[in-house]
């Protein structure tokens, strides 16, 4: 492949300056998508800007009840943070379904998001979690909902010179739980045919007070299905509420037919997985009471 | 294109090399440093034949830019045996005939050792999931899994005896 310039700045401003100076330059997190695309000739950036020399961009920290995850944090490192695993098991599990151990030891959720694949595993979990990302650019920083980053397969809403600096997972109530499930034809090393992230809040009586359901691989981008969440709020997640949630999920699917699955299969599986995912999230929320 | 000067520790030795900015760590290991044990199967992170440890974590060296290795520690298949004494994982691969063509073997051994360094008593399921990123087109995996389980048992015995 043609050799790009390689930069490893130690400040966020340094990254922004390099990305702004060359619109073809790309930030490098784990490289598990970027380097593959460079080698295949799909992209030929003039420069690669490594984010891993900026200490603040690697690792998980707490700001009060908010978890902040640096953009260069590898997926396997998330598992080392016991507090994060207890609060957001669905997010941690989703990030650790990507590729192999070798890949997850490099890959980052920010890269998973900005690669903008509709089948990205960590993204439905982050969207369900209500996560935001902090974006740095020439005009300073802004905070954006995760679901507003991808706009179509391979395309993001990031402007020239902008990059994702960190994720922020919001504070949550005492009885809350999240989960992510995906369907693949084998058990490991595959791309989601359908993925579902769910995040629930329950009150002391077990009534659902907030719910977010997000789907992967059934539309050009990951989708937040507000109607599916709304179908659960105010209920005790009884069969009727779950059926209404499944109906909303199925209605929100606009998948393609491809070698991994047909439109009909994806729609049916989205409903099945959504129900299972909500049940796991509910058990986790209940278990914390 | 300006070549980049990189300092790394490779298999315990302080090592300096020059590389193109776009060169992979695997390119440098094989073509510059002549450590040809790590193989390029796919070049896209799917096959694991290029598995090495970077700062103690196993990665596909085809998906690491050599320039990223500045100041990092790299462990390759060449550092697994101690002189002429094979590591138990290597010995058990021989005893169980856990290889045929051998192309995938260096990656499997680095990955298996990485597992046993962390988890001396893995279940068969844990072994299979851990090695899911390593492809073998000859053995059907069964002999590999048995070799790793047996190596784990031997390592546990060694540790108990010590």
Automatic annotation (TrEMBL), chain A:
InterPro entries: CO_DH_flav_C, CO_DH_flav_C_dom_sf, Diverse_Substr_Oxidored, FAD-bd_PCMH, FAD-bd_PCMH-like_sf, FAD-bd_PCMH_sub1, FAD-bd_PCMH_sub2, Mopterin_DH_FAD-bd. SUPFAM superfamilies: CO dehydrogenase flavoprotein C-terminal domain-like, FAD-binding/transporter-associated domain-like. The keyword Transport does not apply. It comes from the Bacteria. Gene3D superfamilies: 3.30.465.10, CO dehydrogenase flavoprotein, C-terminal domain, Uridine Diphospho-n-acetylenolpyruvylglucosamine Reductase, domain 2. The keyword Flavoprotein applies. Residues 1-174 form the FAD-binding PCMH-type domain. One of its GO terms (molecular function) is oxidoreductase activity. PANTHER family: XANTHINE DEHYDROGENASE SUBUNIT C-RELATED. This is Carbon-monoxide dehydrogenase medium subunit. The lineage of its organism: Bacteria, Pseudomonadati, Pseudomonadota, Alphaproteobacteria, Sphingomonadales.
Automatic annotation (TrEMBL), chain B:
Keywords: 2Fe-2S, Iron, Iron-sulfur, Metal-binding, Oxidoreductase. Residues 4-80 form the 2Fe-2S ferredoxin-type domain. The keyword Transferase does not apply. PROSITE patterns: 2FE2S_FER_1, 2FE2S_FER_2. SUPFAM superfamilies: 2Fe-2S ferredoxin-like, CO dehydrogenase ISP C-domain like. GO terms for molecular function: 2 iron, 2 sulfur cluster binding; metal ion binding; oxidoreductase activity. This is Carbon-monoxide dehydrogenase small subunit. It comes from Novosphingobium mathurense.
